Amino acid sequence: MDKIIYLDNAATTAVSSEVVYSMLPYMIEQYGNPSTSYSLGREAREVVENCRNRIANILNCDPTGLYFTSGGTESDNTLIKGIAHCYYKKDNIIVSNIEHPAVLQTCKELEKEGFTITYAPVKRDGLIDIKELEKLITPQTKLISIMLANNELGTIEPLEEICVMAHKHKVLVHTDMVQATGHMLIDIQKLGVDSFSCSGHKFGAPKGIGLAYIRPGAKCKPFIVGGGQEQGFRSGTENVPAIVGMTVALEKATKNMTYYINRMNTLRELFLKELSGVKYKINGSQKYVLPGTLNISFPRVDGENLKLYLDSKGICVSNGSACHSGSVEPSHVLKAIKLSDNYINGTIRISFGDNTEKDIQYVAQCIKEYLKEIK
Ligand code: PLP
Fold this sequence. Notes:
Elements: E1 5-6, H1 17-23, H2 25-28, H3 39-59, E2 66-69, H4 72-84, E3 92-96, H5 101-113, E4 116-120, H6 130-136, E5 141-145, H7 159-168, E6 172-176, H8 188-191, E7 195-199, E8 210-214, H9 240-255, H10 257-274, E9 281-282, E10 293-297, H11 303-312, E11 315-316, H12 332-336, H13 341-344, E12 347-351, H14 357-374
Helix pairs in contact: 1-9, 3-9, 4-5, 10-14
Bound molecules: pyridoxal-5'-phosphate (PLP).
Pyridoxal-5'-phosphate (PLP) is lined by residues 71-73, 76, 100, 102, 147, 151, 176, 178-179, 199, 210, 323.
């Protein structure tokens, strides 16, 4: 296979040479442990704090509430369990029913501990109805966790309005921003969330690095304990090279945001134009959506076979969420938006990135060929 056409950037992204080169000095020369007090260690500490400030500056949040973790799953576990464990075991947490397993499985564990979990439904467009969400709040509700952008649909939830409503009831709000970070401009002060999770590998950093944020003043118990790094909130030696890489990747994504959004929209429009004459359905809101994510269903088609066919042509797409691939269950997100089985089975997720117009035309052509072949 001479060329891969990668259309699965919601699963993970390539690391640019700029990001790789930014990390190298912190492996080869300045490899000190940031917790040591000689100059090599002090330099590493300075780099970590400098990165924390640069990221806080981009996201407009308080750097003293920002902690480095191994990624989205750890951050979701840490923050949701950490907040819950500051309250009584019978208290209530509300999550949307389209959250990533990193949130849903965390809540399942809290349920076993005695917490009650309420699963808030979304509308057919994948968005939360705030009035309906408000009705679910009880005096025991302590936390609402709603993702900023959904990993399968790309839909963007109305977090600003959710926070205003939740705070009126003195309920904290956590958001999983794993898919959103680096793909849309985010202002935490404006959004108003109390905590959030991010993952570097979704926006051009290496795998195994992420962020957990808890607003200073909000209570959250540490999850990983040990040497007391990260102000005792997340023990374990900081991954200095990956922290640097994530900072550079986020700065790069933020700087290029206008270009990125326009480019994603161009590729998306071209792809749909190239599919003219084909019967398909696009899932989720098309107004509040990440520009690079397209969840599309072809009726009476096996999405898994379509994915494999495209793979044989050198094209990478997803037919569910890569984080829980291998699961034979139909997507809980597509079920939540009440898509019929006929469409669920024929769904693929295309997440655009550094693709050319020619790539996109070729992919649409391959899909058309496959549909013709199976007819
Ligand atoms: N949350 C969402 C919305 C995701 O899409 C993912 C991964 O796809 C995760 C959490 C898990 O992140 P990580 O792979 O960094 O553990």
